Amino acid sequence: MFYFANIAYLTILVLLNILCVSTCQSEETLEMVHVIFRHGNRTPDLRSSYPNDPYLNNSYYPYGHGQLTNKGKNRMYLLGKALRERYDRFLGPLYTPNILDPVSTDTNRTKMSLELVLAGFFPPHETDLEWQKELNWQPIPYNYVSSFTDNTMSIPFFSCPRYTLLVHSLHASSKGIEFRKKHSQIYEQFIENSGADNVTFVLIVTTYGTLTAQ
Ligand SMILES: *[C@@H]1O[C@H](CO)[C@@H](O)[C@H](O)[C@H]1NC(C)=O
Ligand SMILES: *[C@@H]1O[C@H](CO)[C@@H](O)[C@H](O)[C@H]1NC(C)=O
Ligand SMILES: *[C@@H]1O[C@H](CO)[C@@H](O)[C@H](O)[C@H]1NC(C)=O
């Protein structure tokens, strides 16, 4: 079904677990932090384009479709720096493998976002881990699982057939039909301007994402 490709590009969460090991003994309360964030600004995704899209033939060179832009990179890097500021005392300056469990969904833009957040979060300059004076950056590993098996952060169209089934049956249900009837003017406007047919809730969401990116 055509939803599947669109949905891949909604898999936008990046998760960063910060586990406290040794640096937080003086903390009375804080023991663990979970940070969940989206990827940075991106170019429009070809698979979420609509028939009347005036930018349909734009290749978005040199980024490509659905990729993190320089603005998005900067935003993610600044997010890493902001997290450093907030949790500096909790974490201490040194990266050690067990204090952090960075996880991304399986898309380029979320992986790149996570790398940039980690770059801002653990700059090695003037620590024992500084390895290269020209580059205030150190490699930090992260993990991801394929969208087809990710049942935590990815939208479950890939990993859960029952979810897909339920979304389809919601469309066909009297509630779904009633909803579309109630908002028929918006639906008609959407169809007229986008050129799309078979309009679903998901298609509207992904089109909105494309318009925002453009
Ligand atoms: C995109 O390119 C195709 C093939 O060259 C052309 O037919 C179409 O009109 C172009 N669409 C837009 C929106 O520029
Ligand atoms: C990363 O981007 C390239 C180029 O668009 C694409 O071929 C590849 O499938 C992407 N990888 C993932 C995991 O999204
Ligand atoms: C829309 O739905 C009809 C009936 O299910 C199908 O024949 C047609 O191919 C669909 N169109 C698109 C663009 O998916």
Describe this structure in words.
- This protein has 214 residues and is an alpha+beta fold.
- It contains 7 helices and 4 strands, in the order H-E-E-H-E-H-E-H-H-H-H.
- It has a 4-stranded mixed β-sheet, with helices on one face.
- Helix 2 packs across helix 3.
- It is elongated.
- The N terminus is likely disordered.
- Bound molecules: 2-acetamido-2-deoxy-beta-D-glucopyranose (NAG) (3 copies).
Could you give the topology of this structure?
Layout: H1 3-8, E1 13-19, E2 32-38, H2 70-91, E3 100-104, H3 108-121, E4 143-144, H4 161-172, H5 174-182, H6 184-194, H7 201-213
Parallel strand pairs: 3-4
Antiparallel strand pairs: 1-2, 1-3
Helix pairs in contact: 2-3
Bound molecules: 2-acetamido-2-deoxy-beta-D-glucopyranose (NAG) (3 copies).
GO molecular function: acid phosphatase activity
Keywords: Disulfide bond, Glycoprotein, Hydrolase, Signal
Family: Belongs to the histidine acid phosphatase family.
Observed structural traits:
single chain; 214 residues; alpha+beta; four-stranded mixed beta sheet; 7 helices; 4 strands; 41% helix; elongated; disordered N terminus; binds 2-acetamido-2-deoxy-beta-D-glucopyranose
* Biggest β-sheet strands, sense, barrel: 4 strands, mixed
SS strand fraction: 5-15%
> Strands across the major sheet, in which order?
2-1-3-4
Attached small molecules? 2-acetamido-2-deoxy-beta-D-glucopyranose
Note the run of SSEs as H and E: HEEHEHEHHHH
Number of β-strand runs: 4
Low-confidence stretches: 1-13
Q: How many helices in DSSP terms?
A: 7
What is the average per-residue confidence, as pLDDT, rounded to a whole number?
86
Tell me the span between the first and last alpha carbons: 25 Å
**Cα Rg:** 21 Å
